UniProtKB/TrEMBL annotation:
The keyword Cell membrane does not apply. PANTHER family: AQUAPORIN NIP2-1, MAJOR INTRINSIC PROTEIN. GO terms for molecular function: channel activity. The chain crosses the membrane at residues 38-58, 65-86, 155-173, 185-204, 224-245. The keyword Iron-sulfur does not apply. This is Nodulin-26-like. NCBIfam families: MIP. Keywords: Membrane, Transmembrane, Transmembrane helix, Transport. One of its GO terms (cellular component) is membrane. Coiled coil: none annotated. It is found in: Membrane. It is a multi-pass membrane protein. Pfam families: MIP.
Length: 271
């Protein structure tokens, strides 16, 4: 059975004022507000991985006492709580795939991507390291993700489920027509659902940081390329597809005249 997991997601809170948001996002990368965002990503990713991977380790050490539904609930609740805790500070990404997808669709500053991903990887690695220090000896279990079937099977499942996750994130967290207060609940529930059915096959990563942090700590990189590539591509396409839906209430001539869906996704958020 594959190692269990998931992870991180994110909520990029809706724009209520596109002009002010764009101005804020062009602030210097080393400003205090940006540093606070990075700290929120480090701590948020740390708590997410500590809780989710901790449930995995406890389950392995105690004859599956947590169970698959229990692990799925832990991941989903961890995301839900953290979205409402720091979503208004950093957007609660906790996931490099989500950060990259938002950047590609022009909903996040490209120059801030390296810092965000570094913060997420730091939080994940620290959490995995903490678990390894706590669970020593015979209780030291690999908390990362590895495919139980073929690499191709794992890649397809990770791609589809991350596509689905990002599609939901874009719908509930970036579109002003949705009920923003339910964003955390919707994203957490999506993660629970994904963990429930792909955990036995892939370990349910959906998040490069979730897989890479434990891999670094345990020096176990089997199949890691799957968990770096599939979620990233899936998230980018999920965000891009939602952006095409975001245009459906406009006349065709206006959509064509506006140019690229990806380039104009940010400006259509208020539609």
């Amino acid at each position: 059975m594959a190692d269990s997991g998931i992870h991180g997601v994110a909520v990029d809170m809706k724009d209520t004022n596109s002009t002010s948001k764009m101005k804020e996002e062009t602030d210097p990368c080393f400003s205090l507000p940006f540093f606070q965002k990075l700290l929120a990503e480090v701590f948020g990713t740390y708590f997410l991985i500590f809780a989710g991977c901790g449930a995995v380790v406890v389950n392995k050490n105690n004859q599956d006492i947590v169970t698959l539904p229990g692990i799925a609930i832990v991941w989903g609740l961890a995301v839900l709580v953290l979205v409402y805790t720091v979503g208004h500070i950093s957007g609660a990404h906790f996931n490099p795939a989500v950060t990259i997808a938002f950047a590609v669709t022009r909903r996040f500053p490209l120059k801030q991507v390296p810092a965000y991903i570094s913060a997420q990887l730091l939080g994940s690695t620290l959490a995995a390291g903490t678990l390894r220090l706590v669970f020593t000896g015979i209780h030291d279990q690999f908390a990362g993700t590895q495919p139980a079937g073929s690499d191709g099977q794992a890649f397809v499942l990770e791609f589809i489920t991350t596509f689905y996750l990002m599609f939901v994130i874009c719908g509930v967290a970036t579109d002003n027509r949705a009920i923003g207060e339910l964003a955390g609940l919707a994203v957490g529930a999506t993660i629970m659902l994904n963990v429930m059915f792909i955990w036995p096959i892939t370990g349910a990563s959906l998040n490069p940081a979730r897989s890479l942090g434990p891999a670094i700590v345990s020096n176990n990189y089997k199949g890691i390329w799957i968990y770096l590539l599939a979620p990233t591509v899936g998230a980018i396409l999920g965000a891009a597809v939602y952006n095409t839906i975001r245009f459906t209430d406009k006349p065709l001539r206006e959509v064509v005249r506006s140019g690229s869906f990806l380039r104009n996704g940010r400006r259509s958020g208020s539609n």
